[in-house]
Design goal:
Elements: E1 3-7, E2 11-15, E3 23-28, E4 32-38, E5 43-52, E6 58-67, H1 77-80, E7 81-83, E8 90-95, E9 102-106, E10 112-116, H2 122-130, E11 140-142, E12 144-146, H3 152-163, E13 176-178, E14 180-183, E15 208-211, E16 214-217, H4 234-249, E17 253-256, E18 273-279, E19 283-285, E20 288-292, H5 320-326, E21 330-335, E22 338-342, H6 348-359, E23 369-371, H7 382-388, E24 392-395, H8 411-420, E25 427-430, E26 436-443, H9 448-454, E27 457-464, E28 467-472, E29 476-481, E30 490-496, E31 502-505
Parallel strand pairs: 10-12, 11-13, 12-14, 14-17, 22-23, 23-24, 24-25
Antiparallel strand pairs: 1-4, 1-7, 2-3, 4-5, 5-6, 8-9, 8-28, 9-10, 15-16, 16-20, 18-21, 19-20, 21-22, 26-27, 28-29, 29-30, 30-31
């Protein structure tokens, strides 16, 4: 009889044979598994193994395999899994999408939230491999897509999910049916008018009004489907097209979020699990409300970022890029004694606003896991980091091209994360650094014309995605990454002490 189960230890190695020979891969706490047989020595499971083809592609092949706890672990096979209906593990994966952000949140009862999605096909490929077997008649239900803000490196990759539906290879297709799409309400206009003349920054994000001496953006929208194409730049028009198709498949709740709209995540709440929306912060007077038009930060390089001087005003002029970044959706995901803080591309000016609210007791920024804002940019607030006081920090960044090189993460930011952590040995992960690239040697491009122009070059291939994976049941946390060796993981655990504070804990591996 097949048992629908989940892994109940930190890491469980999977083998081709019941004598722990023929290592395949490692499952982690909270991973789903079908158990075909349980004996006193092993679990026989239904799974897939990945075989490399002659063209370099790695394809899943259905098979059976074994989990066989070691004598040293003192675990019995029945200790390794529990029934899926008893699952209590929240899973949060931060995916390397190169220059961009992309994360997947999965609740213990299987609800899925996608947070951003990069600007290329990497996020779509990862999701297609994770949610295999979808079709137009059997799409994967996505409970929420949350786009933190309207920069292409945070949402254009989500459009690639829709485009994947026509991929020639079925394994690369992903059909989804989103229930909700949340965003910050700002839409980027085309950067040039019909006469090819550059449009000023102050007009790139829609109508504004001056209220109490502040310029605020008032043209905020809930649904992109209500915005005409000529008021959007190209990535927004492409995103609108994908949303329209998905909306035809399954009516979507579109909503722009701002501070304190926690009810947007009532669908996700359960015992000790909730999401608080901390930003962006609306401003204005009476019926005229909107988002403040932010300015330019001081020119760098900057060393010695302020820590507690939150009233210092250094931001001048009108910057559309800093405005759309600074008004990223900021939210705190809490499960029991562990919290995650997601910040999009939050910058120094906007961070200070949130830090002041934290000082005043209006919000709580303190979080164990910190998705560091803006890929590790130098435009950060030391005071904000000090108030978050993380134990684990995750930076989503990656090399892609010289055009997209921003020197992320910056040395000053890494130093600040270490300084303002609440522990002596904080964990700082960078998605591009946990990817693995295999040396291939001299190679040629498959495109003949490009190959003639480029010539022979020295090549590497990425054989392990740069994914930072976290698991928690609210009382214990596992964080781990893959490596070039299938059996090697960088893994750490924390549990809560008698005072409810996280402390290092021993890793349990079967």
């Amino acid at each position: 009889m097949v048992s629908q189960s989940v892994i109940n230890v930190d890491l469980a190695d999977v083998f081709e044979h019941p004598d722990r020979k023929g290592f395949l891969y490692t499952l982690a706490w909270g991973d789903y598994v079908e158990v075909l047989e349980t004996t006193t020595k092993h679990l026989r499971i239904s799974t897939v193994k990945f075989e490399e083809k002659s063209d370099g592609s790695i394809l899943p092949v259905q098979t059976e395999a074994y989990i066989c706890p070691t004598k040293e672990s003192k675990l019995k096979p029945t200790d390794v899994v529990i029934p899926r209906v008893n699952n209590q593990v929240l899973k949060v994966n931060f995916v390397d999408v190169q220059q961009g952000d992309g994360a997947v949140i999965e609740s213990p009862d299987g609800k899925i939230i996608l947070v951003d999605g990069g600007d290329n096909q990497l996020f779509a490929r990862y999701l297609a491999a994770r949610f295999r077997g979808t079709s137009e008649t059997k799409p994967k239900e996505i409970d929420c897509i949350l786009v933190t803000h309207g920069d292409a490196d945070h949402f254009a990759g989500l459009t690639k999910i829709y485009e994947s539906e026509t991929n020639a290879e079925p394994r690369k297709r992903l059909f989804i049916a989103p229930k909700r799409v949340y965003h910050n309400g700002l839409v980027k206009r085309p950067s040039k008018d019909k006469s090819n003349k550059a449009i000023p920054d102050k007009k790139l994000l829609g109508p504004t009004q001056v209220v109490n001496g502040e310029t605020i953006l008032t043209g905020l929208v809930d649904s992109l489907l209500d915005v005409s194409d000529d008021e959007m730049n190209l990535p927004f028009r492409q995103w609108k097209k994908a949303l329209a198709k998905w909306n035809d498949r399954n009516k979507i709740e579109f909503r722009r979020l701002s501070f304190a709209q926690d009810d947007a995540f009532d669908f996700f709440k359960r015992n000790n699990l909730d999401i608080s929306v901390l930003g962006p912060i609306m401003t204005g007077d009476g019926s005229v409300r909107g988002l403040k038009f932010l300015g330019n930060p001081p020119k760098g390089p900057r060393i010695g970022h302020e820590s507690l001087n939150l009233d210092q005003e250094e931001f001048k002029g009108f910057s559309s890029s800093h405005t759309i970044n600074g008004h990223s959706i900021v939210f705190r995901l809490r499960y029991g004694g562990f919290s995650f803080l997601f910040c999009g591309d939050l910058n120094d000016e906007a961070s200070r606003i949130l830090a002041r609210k934290h000082q005043n007791g209006e919000i709580n920024l303190r979080s164990e896991v910190f998705k560091v804002p803006h890929h590790g940019s130098a435009d950060f607030s030391g005071a904000f980091f000090q108030m978050v006081s993380p134990i684990i920090s995750v930076i989503s960044s990656g090399d892609e091209s010289a055009k997209k090189e921003y020197i992320h993460p910056r040395a000053t930011l890494l130093g600040a994360l270490g300084r303002y952590s609440r522990v002596d040995e904080p964990l700082i992960f960078v998605t591009e650094l946990v990817a693995f690239f295999n040396l291939e040697g001299w190679a040629h491009l498959t495109d003949k014309k490009k190959d003639e122009e480029r010539g022979e070059f020295f090549a590497f291939s990425r054989t392990a995605y740069g994914i930072v994976k976290t698991r928690t049941d609210g009382t214990r946390m596992l964080i781990y990454t893959d490596s070039g060796k299938a059996d090697m993981k960088e893994a750490y655990c924390y549990s809560l002490d008698d005072n409810g504070l996280p402390v290092p804990s021993a890793l349990v591996r079967a």
